[in-house]
Write a structure and sequence with these properties.
Shape of chain B: globular
Largest interface: A-B, 48 and 53 residues
Radius of gyration of chain A: 21 Å
Helix content of chain B: 25-40%
Shape of chain A: globular
Number of helices of chain A: 12
Number of strands of chain B: 9
Distance between the termini of chain A: 14 Å
Order of helices and strands of chain B: EHEEHEEHHHEHEHEEHH
Strand content of chain B: 25-35%
Number of domains of chain A: 1
Oligomer: heterodimer
Helix content of chain A: 55-70%
Radius of gyration of chain B: 20 Å
CATH class of one domain in chain B: Alpha Beta
Distance between the termini of chain B: 37 Å
Largest sheet of chain B: 6 strands, mixed
Amino acid sequence: MSTPTEAPAPHHARNEWALERHVYEPHLVGLPPVGQYLREIWRRREFAIELSRMKLRAQSFDTVFGQLWLVLNPLLLAGVYFILVDIVRGGQQPEDFFAHLVAGVFAYYFVSGAVRDGVKSVVRGGKLILNSAFPRMLLPLSSLILAFKRFLPTVLIYIPIHVASGLPVGVHLLWVLPLVLLLTLIGGGLAMLVAAVQVYFRDLSSFLPYVLRVMLYSAPVLYFAADVPDRYRLLLDLNPIGQALTAWDAVLRLGEAPSLHSIAVASAWGVGATLVGGLFFMSREREFAVRL
Amino acid sequence: MSSLSASDRVSIAVQDVSVTYRTSVERRPTLRSTVKRLGRRQRVVREIEAVKGVSFDVPQGTVLGVVGANGAGKSTLMRTIAGILPPTEGRVEVQGRVSTLLALGVGFNRKLTGRENVILGGLAAGLTRAEMEHKYEEISAFAELDDRMDLPMRTYSSGMYGRLAFSVAVNMDPDILLIDEALSVGDARFRRKSTRKMRQLCGQDRTVVLVSHALGTIKQLCDQVIWLEHGELRMWADADSVVDAYTDFLDVSQDAVTLEDV
């Protein structure tokens, strides 16, 4: 990948002599210079944003029905899961269960959406990758932005459900912000990881739905975290979004600050996924140009 | 312009560059096939030394031709200069913004329209949206694709692909233009137009690196030529000497076949 060292001149001073300068050298331990790499990403953020917008448009989400579908689809899924769980539990759901389920499904769809779109982001980038130098990480990042754009309207849908279910409203809801950040880190990190692995194993995208399904079932979405038997508790820690969604539920439904354990494990997953996914992606990305 | 003459400045400095990469023999590597192969000791990853210890400079304003057989490392060298495939050894220093017209064409998403692909390509290259909107007008006018620009690229013919790719590359107003065997795109009329545009670009104070098998074109357009063979620099001199030496090497006379624009 390109890691141009550039010294762009201030715009007003741009003249014959203020040319961009790029130096390409072998990567140390397979990594491009990280600081420079991140600056390049920031400089080209518009590309990732535009790409996510065009993807949304290509899925015809700029039409009224398209946007309706955007919120209707996760809502319908929440409805199906609700009926499923209600039958399994013999029709004895606590009143706040539907709101819990909807909040969980929406958060899960944010993370899984980023991973599902991210897995093919690099492989699909084909010709652009073969023909131009830019930080490839922008591709899975645009998947993350896309997932976030699809997540936002579902937040609006959740609000009336939250209020109608009589769930507590207060300053504790501010916890939602750091939790969304953690979900973003987890989703982004996993998206980068799978995007890079997909280049080497093109069938990853066919296994991925199963993995994501397991992630949903082992997270406190279809049930409450408190109901998980002791011998399965570990699953909540092992699932990347297990503790993040436990905290999510504590804040939204129980109206309390998340437990220290939940926050610690979710943060570890967020930071860990971003570091591992990001560094792995960067270390492999030189090869993308010859492996596609 | 400054007091220094243009040729005192080096646009591209390639210092002792080697490029090695590993690539998979399988067209579509999968986990399934990897697991099946376990214990069978089949090697499916090959290491390719595409460029070996090549050094040369391209002064600003020079048109440099690159000749060599298929697999000599020409395309890899171009991609290294473009920053797409960083070198494994050595150092490449490039002064100025590079625009590429490499063998594979423009755009990357056939579902998106020509317009969207052009804008995205520009943003990926580091231009701003406003700059790209401005350039887009020139690009679409040059490509003469008219209302096709708003159709998904899957509806384009290969000639139209080539036209758009050429238009993007030459209208980005680059300091350095890298062209890999892409001079002959489109129909006869567009070819004439693109050749004229190329002459114009080569005549300006712009650095151009041109990979082509059309030795006639190389002779006409280039000031200097490098000849690559098996990844090594075999010769670096003025266009006539290199093309003559290369032609002698090929043991063919300079007849219409090798000189023609192909």
